[in-house]
Structures are given as structure tokens and as C-alpha cells.
Amino acid sequence: MRCSRRSRLRRCHCLPPDGAALFKQQCATCHTTNLSDPVRQGPPLFRIVGRPAGKAEGFHYSAGFAKADFVWDDARLDAWLANPQAMIPGAIMAYRQARPETRAAIIAYLKELN
After folding, report:
1. What is the model's pTM?
2. Calpha distance 24→29 (Å, rounded)
């Protein structure tokens, strides 16, 4: 799909969103992507895909997460990013992402960290 000159000037929506850049803009304030940085407000997301929910070493989770009994996969991450409180009542994360393409790009980036 080619973008028109006008479209390029506004920000081309023809290109897929860059997951790393989106993560840096929208997630990195609260989350790290490695295990060497100090823990922030949220748990580190290094190797999140395939990890049991609420089980990151060194992070204190909310009571809702303490009861979580699932492993993070694409579908669960997508639901979480769309509406954390609907997925885990009492979740503290305030971020919500309504755009499926943005969620997909962030999830693809997180999968690269595995």
C-alpha cells in the first residue's frame, strides 16, 4: 500500500506501528524490558510471553494478581492492554489502549524480548 504525499505529511498510516517506539512512549515509564534495571512502578516485561501472570521476581503484585492463574500469551496481553481492570479486578495499571493495531505492535515487540 502506497501513501499519498498528503498522507505522508500527516504521518503515514500505511506503515505498521513501530512496537519498540510505542513501548518507549507508552510503557517504559512504568516498565523495563530487562532484568538489570531497577524495578519501576510495574514489573519488568522481559520474557513476559509464556510467563505466569503475577510471578515476576522481585515485584510486589496487587491482590488480584496474586490470584491470577494464567500464562501471558498474545490474547491475554491484548485483553490486558485494552482494559486491565476488566481482566483482573483491582488491577492498578491505569493504561488502556483502544487501538488494536497499537496493542498488536506492542505485543509483537514484547515477543521479540523472549
Report:
1. 0.81
2. 8
User: How far is 43 from 77, CA to CA, in rounded Å?
Assistant: 14
User: Of 1.25.40.10, 1.10.760.10, 3.60.110.10, 3.30.420.40, which CATH number belongs to 17-112?
Assistant: 1.10.760.10
User: Residue 17, exposed/middle/buried by CB under 10 A (0-12, 13-18, 19+)?
Assistant: middle
Give residue 57's pLDDT band: very low, low, confident or very high (50, 70, 90): confident
Identify residue 84 by its one-letter amino acid code.
P
**Predicted confidence (pLDDT) per residue in 39-48, tens digit:** 888 999 999 9
DSSP secondary structure code for residue 30 in this structure: T
Task: Judge contact between 19 and 108, C-beta under 8 A.
Answer: yes
Nearest to 109 by CA among 11, 17, 13, 29: 17
Burial (CB count within 10 angstroms: exposed 0-12, middle 13-18, buried 19+), residue 51:
middle
